[in-house]
């Protein structure tokens, strides 16, 4: 069950980006503030394995990814797309 990222939207927070998907990923908000909270959720675990990812929010047809302030967006965006298209 792979997802295509149709758009990556900036947010008011420079350390957060909204990854809009081609279909719904969650009917209700699901947040993961730590990698430990992601245990048992395959996609969240794979996203937390990306260097620099600090928290996640799944809702409707998007995932908001928060990164560490020191991390660069370019490699994170590439890795998020790769995870979502290969799940």
| Extended strand count | 5
The major sheet is characterized as: 5 strands, antiparallel
CATH structural architecture? 2-Layer Sandwich
Residue fraction in strands: 35-45%
Describe the structure.
Residues 6-86 form the Scaffold protein Nfu/NifU N-terminal domain. It comes from uncultured Phycisphaerae bacterium. InterPro entries: Nfu/NifU_N (IPR014824), Nfu/NifU_N_sf (IPR036498). The mean pLDDT is 97. The chain has one domain (5-85): Scaffold protein Nfu/NifU, N-terminal domain (Ribosomal Protein S8, Chain: A, domain 1, 2-Layer Sandwich), CATH 3.30.1370. With 87 residues, it is of the alpha+beta class. The protein starts with a strand and ends with a helix. The protein has a 5-stranded antiparallel sheet. Helix content is 23%, strand content 38%. The longest helix is centred in the C-terminal third of the chain and has 13 residues, at 73-85.
For this entry, give a set of tags.
87 residues, alpha+beta, Ribosomal Protein S8, Chain: A, domain 1, 5-stranded antiparallel sheet, 2 helices, globular
Short description:
InterPro entries: Nfu/NifU_N, Nfu/NifU_N_sf. The protein has helices at residues 42-48, 73-85, and strands spanning 5-10, 16-21, 26-32, 53-60, 62-67.
Topology of this structure?
Elements: E1 5-10, E2 16-21, E3 26-32, H1 42-48, E4 53-60, E5 62-67, H2 73-85
Antiparallel strand pairs: 1-2, 2-5, 3-4, 4-5
Organism: uncultured Phycisphaerae bacterium
Protein name: Scaffold protein Nfu/NifU N-terminal domain-containing protein
InterPro entries: Nfu/NifU_N (IPR014824), Nfu/NifU_N_sf (IPR036498)
């Amino acid at each position: 069950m792979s997802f295509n990222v149709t758009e990556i939207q900036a947010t008011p927070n420079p350390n957060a980006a909204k990854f809009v998907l081609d279909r719904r990923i969650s009917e209700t908000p699901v947040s993961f503030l730590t990698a430990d909270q992601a245990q048992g959720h395959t996609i969240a675990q794979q996203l937390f394995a990306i260097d620099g990812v600090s928290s996640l929010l799944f809702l409707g047809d998007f995932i908001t990814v928060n990164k560490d302030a020191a991390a660069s967006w370019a490699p994170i965006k590439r890795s998020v797309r790769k995870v979502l298209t290969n799940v």
